[in-house]
Amino acid sequence: MKTPSASRAERTGQKILDAAMSSLLAKGLKRTSIEAIAALAGVSHMTVYRRWPHKEDLFSDLLSREADQLFAHVDRELAGTGDPQERLIEGFAAIFWSFYDHPLLAREYAADPATTLRVLTVSSAPVFDRAIDYLAARVAGLMTDAPMGDDEARRVAEVMVRITHSLLLTTLETRPFTTRDEVAAWGREHVGWILFSAE
């Protein structure tokens, strides 16, 4: 059971993240100050600095929160998809497209690609680890004929996450995909073999 102070701290953190999202979407990372985010959240700037000493830390945590919300959305969206391969491909497409087409990520990459790429690489461990945990828990259940052990499911999940991450990093500049369906088609051609041999 959470203590009242922990619950209050969590609510304050969410208010700050909400304020940061609004401010970053409106002004971008370079033109947004911690002081402005604090004012919008209704807290002191020291409250923000204690938790996020750098704006890039705040940006990274915003992406982590977006990832958590995305994973929950993908689970709901794919709940009715019975075919294991289609669940894998559609899940891959949904996760990739949500980051590729995210307004904050697209805006920041256009304004400051070097900082955005640094956040997506150097500071990406929390999102990366969440993604592997999320996918490993679902990959094992996809293989009904020959269930995977936890270690094997985690290895497969890490490969899938690394492919998704690499594809994101290498397409933010060129923007080769215009729809999520195009991402799913790419996945069917290039990713499906990781779990399923060709019939």
Describe the structure.
It is built from ten helices and no strands. The longest helix has 24 residues, at 4-27. The radius of gyration is 19 Å and the shape is globular. The chain is mostly helical. The protein has helices spanning 4-27, 34-41, 45-51, 55-78, 84-100, 103-111, 113-121, 125-142, 150-171, 180-190. The mean pLDDT is 85.
Could you give a short description of this structure?
The chain is mainly α. The chain is 75% helix and 0% strand. The protein is globular.
List key phrases describing it.
mainly alpha, 199 residues, 10 helices, 75% helix, globular
Q: Strand content of the residues, in percent?
A: under 5%
Structural class, please? Answer: mainly alpha
Bin the helical content: over 70%
Cα distance spanning the termini: 50 Å
Number of contiguous helices: 10
Question: How are the SSEs placed, and which strands pair?
Answer:
Blueprint: H1 4-27, H2 34-41, H3 45-51, H4 55-78, H5 84-100, H6 103-111, H7 113-121, H8 125-142, H9 150-171, H10 180-190
Helix pairs in contact: 1-2, 2-3, 4-5, 4-8, 5-9, 5-10, 6-7, 8-9
